[in-house]
Structures are given as structure tokens and as C-alpha cells.
């Protein structure tokens, strides 16, 4: 089995607050892992450490054998590590189509081209159309993103990241804010991903987690509490207490 | 047809200026030069979202470079424009390598500082630049064919031709992948990084291209007036150009041009009517536009039709 993403002893402190505390984590190609845990456990911070938005306080991140701990975010994305944001982060003044076009053009490293039309490549346009089709975004193609409903923006957020054709895909609460009638678009999209793609999904929606994940990591207060198959996690007394105990909060 | 309309209007407007103001071609030419300068700010601020109040640094650099080149090397104006563009690009690149790491208020202060620094350098280098007296230079005929005449006909036509080239170039850039990425930078640098775009190099590139165009505007101003002064580096110039851009509408090439024309005429006639209080007229105009039409005058048709901004 090839190596994929290997995280060792990863820690992050914000001032005095230890948000990630010596995390060991593997995400080989083809993985379908979920990262769950209560609010403030450090899930998003972990994702931000892996994608290079935050620099770790200590520990290492390797990808396919190479140490990427010191690489900036752009370089890591170009290696194929991409994530969706928990808080939708899009080009709000541009249309859905323009958002996706920008992502595809950057993936193809064409962002410095001056003397051709951004919308002039039929292959790129076809790819954008296929992505929009997959997430039922076609009717919204030429709408400005800031005018879309929040759930629709979440779908654009996912489409943007898929447009990068990543090798490691981290989804930070992709379904939060998406109406129940549209969550299937997200599950379908995840299930349709290439088999060798490594996927890490951070999610509070347990139904979605149990549907897509083959293994689950539970993070509490910056530490990994336990890791196991969905069945193991569902019957784990510690996890049950954590979730059922706090289910009303 | 709808796409061609602005071009037809622009052509008609330019021709009208030429025909209706035969004894005021110097003023008409100044509008053209300012239009190019405001376009350069539009690229940097309106497209890429780089906040600046110091674009005059590159305008002044272009003006002095063109004048010195003409005085000491070759007096042909088109070559001088190339030198001016190069000077503007170099100043923008060198300062941009530092400035493009900054953002917000820090960035604005730094852009002002660069322009002030260059103004002071030009002031000190009296032997070369003439210091506060400015530098008077005779330019040769354009492409060796058209002499600058004292009514300013050559100057006007030359400026109009340069303006058309710059506008054409920017129209290409605006539609290109690079242009789209600049709008992305303005909208969300975080998302740009997340799609793997090199944010800092892209900002430096945008600033440098804007600097080259400001350099062209500066060189042109020197050539049509036969004079360069320290004013070319002034804060007032940067600030007024920014007001023109906001008046017309940022992020759109036609907005930059519309704002320039409007401001220049308002300035011209308000200043003639009341030399002491004309600034109030300009101030009132800006406030009305900013409050009523935050997207600038160019958003007026859209606002009337029912609020689609693009
Ligand atoms: N940039 C930051 N500076 C300071 N503290 C931060 C920063 N980012 C996160 N934190 C803190 O780190 C802790 C973990 O935050 P994080 O967003 O990683 O949690 P999470 O597990 O994603 O929670 P949620 O389920 O609510 O999204 C929180 O206490 C948060 O306040
Ligand atoms: Mg989170």
C-alpha cells in the first residue's frame, strides 16, 4: 500500500491553548475516514494544519514520503491536498460558473495567461458543466454566488474543491446548513469520488458519517480518543456517552 | 451591438472633444492622460483589490524616465513611452515585492510613502531633474512624422491613440485567465490560496502591470506638455485619480473612463466658476454618488433596470 498522508506528533497551540495535542494520523489513498468530536475539539484546526493554513507548533506531516510540514498552502494544494471550508469561502461577487472556472484554470496553472479568453477553452467549460451537473448547480450557473441560499453555496464550496481534482480531500462539515432535501447531493458526490482518492470528512451529521465513512476517528479536546470502524464506534461506551450525553446541547 | 456601444460612445466623445474644444485641446489631452492613469488604478485596485493611494509613484517615474531619456538619448516619443512603461514597471515591481506582503491600512500608508520617497529623491537630484523647478524637455516628432504643434493637435491625437491601445490591452487582460484571477484575489485571497493560486506573486504581477500603465500615462503627460514637475509624484494626483475611479465605478474599464471625464469637467468648470470653492462641488458630487450609487455611475443603468450589478 502506498503511503498517502502521514501525520506524526502534530501539535498546535494558540497562545496557551493546546488545540491539537500530539496527533498521529494516517490517510492512505482510497481511505474514507471521518473525524468526529464535540464543538471546539480541534477538528477544523487539524484540517487547517494539514492543508497549511496554520503552521504546526510541533510534529510532522508527510505526503507520499515527502515532508510537507514547511510547505505553504498553495504548494500543498498543488500537490493535491484540498479542503472545503467549514465557513463557506467563495468568490462571492462572481457567478457559480466563474468560481469553478477560476478553480479549474488554477489547477491547470493557467492563472498567469494574459492573451486568451478565460472562458475560451471548450474542455474547461465542459468540465465546469459536468461538475455543475453532478451537484445540481446548473440552474444557478450564471447567478452571483452572494445571492444564493446558504445551502446552495455549500454545494458550490464542494464543487470548487472537486474542481481541483485532489488526491487528498478534506471536507469540513460539508452538509452543515444544507437542507435535508439536498444532503443526498453531497453523499452522492462523495460516493462518486474516484476510488483511490483519500477522503477525510469532518461532520456532525452522524447519518452522513455512517453512510460514507469506513473508519471513524474521535477527537476530544485536541486528542484522539479512539479510532475504529463505524460499528465499533457506534458501540463504544465512551463515544456513546459523549454523543448521547450531549445530544440535547 | 450592445457590446460595441461603449466603444462608439468613446470614439464619438473623443471626436467631439476634438471638434468642440479646438482651442482647449490641452485640456482634452489632459483628460486622456488622466484616463490612462485611472485605468491603471482600476487594474490594481478595482480588479485585484490592492488598496493604493500612491499610484503616482509609477506615474512620476514614467514621466521623469521619458523626459530624461528624451533629453539624453533619443527624443522620439513612442520610444519614450516604452521607457516610461519600463520605469513604472520597475518601480512597481521593486516596491511591490515589499508592499504586496501588506494589506489594508498598512498597505495604503506604504504606497503613499513610496511616492513621497520618490518625490523627495527627484527633488534632491536637482542636477538631473531640475528639482522643484521641474524639467523642460523638447520631444521629437512622433515616429519621426508628426511634430508636436503649439495648439496641441498632434498631442491630442497621439494621446488618443495611446489611450486606445491601453484600453484595448486592458480589455484583453480583463477577459483573460489572469484578469479573472485578479477578481478572485479581490474577492477572497483565502479561497485563492485554497485553489492553489500563488497569491503573492499574482499580486506583484498585477501591481507591476498597473505600474507599467501608470508609467505610460506619466510619460505621455511629460511628452504632451514638454514638462515634468515634482507634482507628478504628488499625493493629490493619486487621490484625485482614486476619486475619479470611485465616481465612475471600480472594477470596470468604462467606469474608470466615465469617472475621469466627469471629474475633469466638473473640476474644470467648477474651478472656473468659483476658484475658491470648487472643491465643495466636487466633494458634493462624490458624496452623492457614493451614497446613492455605491457601484459608481456605471451601475446607474443597472440600478434603474432593477439592481443587477453585473
Ligand atoms: N486562529 C485561532 N486562534 C485562537 N484560537 C483558535 C483559532 N482557531 C481555533 N481556535 C480555538 O481552537 C479550538 C478548536 O477550534 P476548532 O475550530 O478546531 O474546533 P472544531 O472541532 O472544528 O469545532 P466545531 O465542531 O465547532 O467546528 C476552539 O477553542 C477555538 O476557539
Ligand atoms: Mg470546525
TrEMBL record, chain A:
Source species, domain of life: Bacteria
Cross-referenced InterPro entries: AAA+_ATPase, ABC_AA/LPS_Transport, ABC_transporter-like_ATP-bd, ABC_transporter-like_CS, BCA_ABC_TP_C, P-loop_NTPase
Gene3D superfamilies in UniProt: P-loop containing nucleotide triphosphate hydrolases (3.40.50.300)
Nucleotide-binding keyword on record: yes
GO cellular component: plasma membrane
GO MF annotation, one: ATP hydrolysis activity
Residue stretches in coiled coil: none
Keywords recorded for this protein, A-Z: ATP-binding, Nucleotide-binding, Transport
Residues annotated as domain ABC transporter: 5-246
Name listed for the protein in its UniProt record: ABC transporter ATP-binding protein
TrEMBL record, chain B:
Transmembrane regions: 31-50, 81-100, 107-125, 150-173, 204-230, 242-266, 278-300
Keywords, comma-separated and alphabetical: Cell membrane, Membrane, Transmembrane, Transmembrane helix
Subcellular localization: Cell membrane
Chief location bin: membrane
Gene Ontology molecular function: branched-chain amino acid transmembrane transporter activity
Family matches, as InterPro entries: ABC_transp_permease, LivM-like
CDD domains linked: TM_PBP1_LivM_like (cd06581)
Pfam families per the UniProt record, alphabetical: BPD_transp_2
Membrane topology: Multi-pass membrane protein
An annotated GO cellular component: plasma membrane
PANTHER family linked to this entry: ABC TRANSPORTER ATP-BINDING PROTEIN, HIGH-AFFINITY BRANCHED-CHAIN AMINO ACID TRANSPORT SYSTEM PERMEASE
Name of the featured protein: Branched-chain amino acid ABC transporter permease
Organism of this sequence: Mangrovicoccus algicola
Amino acid at each position: 500500500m502506498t503511503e498517502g498522508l502521514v501525520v506524526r506528533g502534530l501539535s498546535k497551540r494558540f497562545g496557551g491553548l493546546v488545540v491539537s495535542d500530539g496527533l498521529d494520523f494516517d490517510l492512505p489513498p482510497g481511505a474514507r475516514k471521518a473525524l468526529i468530536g464535540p464543538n471546539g475539539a480541534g477538528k477544523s484546526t487539524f484540517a487547517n494544519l494539514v492543508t497549511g493554513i496554520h503552521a504546526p507548533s510541533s510534529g510532522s506531516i508527510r505526503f507520499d514520503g515527502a515532508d510537507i510540514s514547511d510547505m505553504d498552502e498553495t504548494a500543498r494544494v498543488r500537490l493535491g491536498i484540498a479542503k472545503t471550508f467549514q465557513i463557506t469561502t467563495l468568490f462571492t461577487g462572481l457567478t457559480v460558473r466563474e468560481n469553478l472556472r477560476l478553480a479549474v484554470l488554477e489547477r491547470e496553472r493557467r492563472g498567469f495567461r494574459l492573451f486568451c479568453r478565460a472562458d475560451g477553452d471548450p474542455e474547461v467549460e465542459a468540465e465546469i458543466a459536468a461538475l455543475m451537473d453532478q451537484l445540481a448547480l446548473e440552474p444557478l450557473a450564471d447567478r452571483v454566488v452572494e445571492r444564493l441560499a446558504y445551502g446552495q453555496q455549500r454545494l458550490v464550496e464542494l464543487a470548487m474543491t472537486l474542481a481541483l481534482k485532489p488526491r487528498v480531500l478534506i471536507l469540513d462539515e460539508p452538509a452543515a446548513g444544507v437542507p435535508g432535501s439536498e444532503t443526498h447531493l453531497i453523499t452522492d458526490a462523495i460516493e462518486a469520488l474516484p476510488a483511490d482518492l483519500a477522503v477525510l470528512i469532518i461532520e456532525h451529521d452522524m447519518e452522513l458519517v455512517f453512510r460514507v465513512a469506513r473508519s471513524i476517528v474521535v477527537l476530544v479536546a485536541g486528542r484522539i480518543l479512539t479510532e475504529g470502524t463505524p460499528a465499533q464506534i457506534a458501540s463504544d461506551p465512551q463515544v456513546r456517552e459523549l454523543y448521547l450525553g450531549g445530544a440535547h446541547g | 451591438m450592445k457590446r460595441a456601444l461603449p466603444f462608439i460612445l468613446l470614439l464619438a466623445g473623443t471626436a467631439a472633444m476634438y471638434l468642440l474644444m479646438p482651442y482647449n485641446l490641452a485640456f482634452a489631452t489632459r483628460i486622456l492622460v488622466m484616463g490612462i492613469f485611472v485605468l491603471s488604478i482600476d487594474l490594481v485596485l478595482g480588479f485585484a483589490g490592492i488598496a493604493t493611494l500612491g499610484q503616482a509613484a509609477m506615474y512620476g517615474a514614467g514621466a521623469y524616465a521619458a523626459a530624461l531619456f528624451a533629453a539624453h538619448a533619443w527624443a522620439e516619443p513612442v520610444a519614450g513611452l516604452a521607457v516610461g512603461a519600463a520605469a513604472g514597471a520597475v518601480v512597481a515591481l521593486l516596491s511591490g515585492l515589499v508592499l504586496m506582503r501588506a494589506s489594508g491600512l498598512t498597505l495604503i500608508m506604504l504606497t503613499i510613502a513610496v511616492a513621497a520617497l520618490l518625490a523627495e529623491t527627484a527633488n534632491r537630484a536637482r542636477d538631473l531633474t531640475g528639482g522643484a523647478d521641474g524639467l523642460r524637455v523638447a520631444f521629437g516628432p512622433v515616429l519621426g512624422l508628426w511634430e508636436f504643434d503649439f495648439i496641441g493637435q498632434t498631442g491630442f491625437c497621439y494621446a488618443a491613440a495611446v489611450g486606445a491601445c491601453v484600453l484595448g490591452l486592458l480589455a484583453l487582460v480583463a477577459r483573460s485567465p489572469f484578469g479573472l484571477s485578479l477578481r478572485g484575489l479581490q474577492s477572497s485571497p483565502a479561497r485563492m490560496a485554497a485553489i492553489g493560486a500563488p497569491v503573492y506573486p499574482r499580486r506583484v504581477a498585477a501591481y507591476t502591470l498597473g505600474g507599467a500603465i501608470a508609467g505610460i500615462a506619466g510619460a505621455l503627460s511629460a511628452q504632451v506638455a514638454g514638462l515634468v514637475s515634482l507634482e507628478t509624484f504628488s499625493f493629490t494626483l493619486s487621490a484625485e485619480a482614486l476619486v475619479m475611479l470611485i465616481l465612475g465605478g471600480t472594477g470596470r474599464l468604462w467606469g474608470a473612463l466615465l469617472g475621469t471625464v466627469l471629474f475633469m469637467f466638473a473640476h474644470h468648470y467648477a474651478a472656473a466658476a468659483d476658484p475658491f470653492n470648487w472643491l465643495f462641488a466636487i466633494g458634493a458630487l462624490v458624496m452623492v454618488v457614493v451614497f446613492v450609487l455605491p457601484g459608481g455611475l456605471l451601475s446607474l443603468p443597472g440600478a434603474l433596470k432593477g439592481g443587477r450589478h453585473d
